[in-house]
C-alpha cells in the first residue's frame, strides 16, 4: 500500500557518482532543514519521506495542526516507511523528525478518548506501534520542541536521539488519568534511573534538552543555530558509510544489553564478533588498516 518515496531530487542525487553528489546533497540538506518539508508524498497523509542523501531516508512527521500527535494511520505510515528503508540496500540509516515546535505531542488524545477496554484489548491497541523497534538499520530521532507522551516514547524507540536546544521530553500521561503505554515507564527508567523517571512520570514535568543530555536520555544537544535535522542526517550518513553487516550487529548487540544479563550479553557480543570474521567487510576493514588506506565496504 505504501512505498518509500524517492523525490525527484533524490533520484537525481542518487544517479550521481558519490563524490560529485556531495555538494548537491549539501544544498539539499540545507533546503530540507531550513524550511518546512519541501516534498510531499501522494502515498502518505501524515508523514513526508525524503532522501537528503542517497544513503539516508528522512521521515518527517507532518500533522502540524495537531503538533504531530500520533494517530493510528500515522503509525502505519511510519511502519511502512521504515520497513521500506530497511529493505532498501542503498539506505544505511534512517532519521525521524518532526517540526520546530513539536517532534510529537504524544498519542492523539482525541482519537483515543472514547476507547473502551474490551475493544482496546481485543484489537491489541498500540501493539503495532512498537514495530519500529524491529527495524535492523539505525534510526536517529532529531528532536525539536515537544517530545511528550508517545512522542517521547517514539524518540526512545530510536537508536540515537539528537536534540535541539528547544527540545523538551516528558511523559505527561498522568495528567490524562493514564500512564505511558508505549514503553515510557520502561525505556525512560533505563535511561534516567528510578528516581528521576518516577518524578517525571508521577508529576508529568517535562525535561529540558540540557537536562536530558546531562542524564543520558539524548546523545547530545546541537548548538544554537545548528539544525538538528542537518546534524542527524550527517550522523546517519556517517553510519551509512560503515559496513552494513557490522552496523547491524552493533545495533543488535547494544540492544541486547537491555534484555540480557552481563554474562549472557558478553557471550552474545563475542559470538557476533566471531561471526563477523566470516564477512568480506572484516577482511577489507582490517587489510585497509594494515595497508594504510581507506576501506571500501561491500556490505558482505
Ligand atoms: C511510539 C508509540 C506511541 C504511542 C503512544 C501511546 C501511549 C502514550 O504513552 C499515551 C500518550 O501519548 S497520551 C498524550 C500525551 N501528551 C500530552 O498529554 C500532551 C498534550 N498536549 C499538550 O499538553 C499541549 O498541546 C502542548 C503543551 C504540547 C502545546 O501547547 P500549546 O502550544 O498551547 O498548543 P495547543 O493549543 O495545546 O495545541 C495545538 C493543537 O494541537 C492539538 N494537540 C496537541 N497535543 C495533542 C495530542 N496529544 N492529541 C491530539 N491533539 C493534540 C491541540 O488539541 C490543538 O489543536 P486544536 O484543534 O487547535 O485545539
UniProtKB/TrEMBL annotation:
**PROSITE patterns found in the cross-reference section:** ENOYL_COA_HYDRATASE (PS00166)
Per the record, its GO cellular-component terms are:
mitochondrion
GO annotation, biological process = fatty acid beta-oxidation
The record's CDD domains line, in alphabetical order, gives: crotonase-like (cd06558)
Keyword terms of this UniProt record = Fatty acid metabolism, Lipid metabolism, Lyase
The EC number(s) given in the record are 4.2.1.17
Bias class Low complexity marks the residues at 10-24
Q: Name one GO molecular function term.
A: enoyl-CoA hydratase activity
List the residue ranges of the region (Disordered): 1-24
EC main class here is lyase
Homology family? Belongs to the enoyl-CoA hydratase/isomerase family.
The protein in question is named Probable enoyl-CoA hydratase, mitochondrial
Q: Which species does this protein come from?
A: Acaromyces ingoldii
Amino acid at each position: 500500500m505504501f512505498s518509500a518515496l524517492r523525490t525527484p531530487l533524490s533520484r537525481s542525487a542518487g544517479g550521481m557518482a558519490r563524490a560529485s553528489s556531495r555538494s548537491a546533497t549539501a544544498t539539499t540538506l540545507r533546503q530540507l532543514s531550513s524550511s518546512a518539508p519541501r516534498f510531499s508524498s501522494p502515498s502518505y497523509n501524515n508523514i513526508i519521506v525524503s532522501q537528503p542523501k542517497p544513503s539516508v531516508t528522512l521521515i518527517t512527521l507532518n500533522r502540524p495542526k495537531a503538533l504531530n500527535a500520533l494517530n493510528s494511520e500515522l503509525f502505519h505510515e511510519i511502519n511502512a516507511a521504515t520497513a521500506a528503508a530497511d529493505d532498501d540496500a542503498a539506505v544505511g540509516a534512517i532519521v525521524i523528525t518532526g517540526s520546530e515546535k513539536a517532534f510529537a505531542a504524544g498519542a492523539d488524545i482525541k482519537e483515543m478518548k472514547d476507547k473502551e477496554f474490551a475493544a482496546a484489548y481485543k484489537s491489541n491497541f498500540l501493539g503495532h506501534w512498537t514495530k519500529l523497534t524491529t527495524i535492523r538499520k539505525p534510526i536517529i530521532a532529531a528532536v525539536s520542541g515537544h517530545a511528550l507522551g508517545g512522542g517521547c516514547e517514539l524518540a526512545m524507540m530510536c537508536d540515537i536521539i539528537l536534540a535541539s536546544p528547544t527540545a523538551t521530553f516528558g511523559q505527561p500521561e498522568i495528567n490524562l488519568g493514564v500512564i505511558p503505554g508505549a514503553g515510557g515507564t520502561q525505556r525512560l527508567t533505563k535511561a534516567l534511573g528510578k528516581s528521576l523517571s518516577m518524578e517525571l512520570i508521577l508529576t508529568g514535568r517535562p525535561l529540558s534538552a540540557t537536562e536530558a543530555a546531562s542524564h543520558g536520555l539524548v546523545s547530545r544537544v546541537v548548538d544554537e543555530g545548528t539544525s538538528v535535522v542537518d546534524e542527524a542526517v550527517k550522523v546517519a550518513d556517517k553510519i551509512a558509510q560503515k559496513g552494513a553487516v557490522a552496523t547491524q550487529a552493533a545495533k543488535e548487540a547494544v540492544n541486547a544489553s537491555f534484555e540480557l544479563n552481563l554474562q549472557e550479553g558478553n557471550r552474545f557480543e563475542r559470538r557476533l564478533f566471531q561471526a563477523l570474521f566470516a564477512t568480506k567487510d572484516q577482511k577489507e576493514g582490517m587489510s585497509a588498516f594494515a595497508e594504510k588506506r581507506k576501506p571500501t565496504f561491500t556490505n558482505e
